[in-house]
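Lecture notes, unit on protein representations.

Consider one protein chain, 284 amino acids long.
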Amino acid sequence: MSSYPSAPPPGSAGGAAGPPVCPRHPDRVSYVTCQRCSRPACPECQRPAAVGVHCVDCVREANRSVRPTRTVLGGRVAASDRPVVTMTIIGICLAAFLASYLLPGLRAAFWLRPSLAGDEPWRLITSAFLHAGWLHLLANMYALWIVGPFLEQMLGRWRYIALYLVSALGGSVAVLLLTAPENYQIPTVGASGAVFGLFAAVAVVLRRTGRDARQILVVIAINVVITFTVAGISWQAHLGGLVVGGALGALFAYLPKERRSVGAVLGVAAMLALLGVLTAVALA
């Protein structure tokens, strides 16, 4: 607890009797005292309590001793329920899309072209933040906004970030593995691999928590049909993201509580190692 000098009590040595003042704001007189520490608290420093008021310092000290509320899968429930990570990803994708119009060479410098992946491996991730057009961007960001906040809350931020990025990487690695050599010059962009990974993870999490997963399974089925029937869509990226996202989603959802943190780290590391080996095989 922070320490502030209090006004000298009436009749005490070293100070004349006077009205009580707020220890945080000595220029303010206050006859309201904190129910915990009994110090005066001015209106700015008062916080309503079940009985009377508490000062801000006592409230802060009490909050430190309160264990954070967590979801059934270990995600920390923050005071604000804003999906900060999801909003940040959407913001990055939007900024990258706008920048690609201002800097015409930007997209070509960061999209995934299998023939360049060996010398420029960053393309395996950066391509997931670029999009070919407004419709492509809006479709992926809408899907991300539908499923992202739920997973961000259920899993917690760091596991959600890992799920998104590793699913995106899984989609890119699948492009390297499953694209015919004669098509190695065709570029691939988009967050679809990551979004498909989130789709698969949502289905697993819903089943794990006893909720109805039929709606998301229908969405996945519809998108799979679209993937294989509409020209110009990278079915490889969608398939890779779906598989990797489903695997990580199952890991995060079914790890025992006592092994949740360490197991998640080891699982993500193992998946990255596997994708690294598959990348080396594809580029060999």
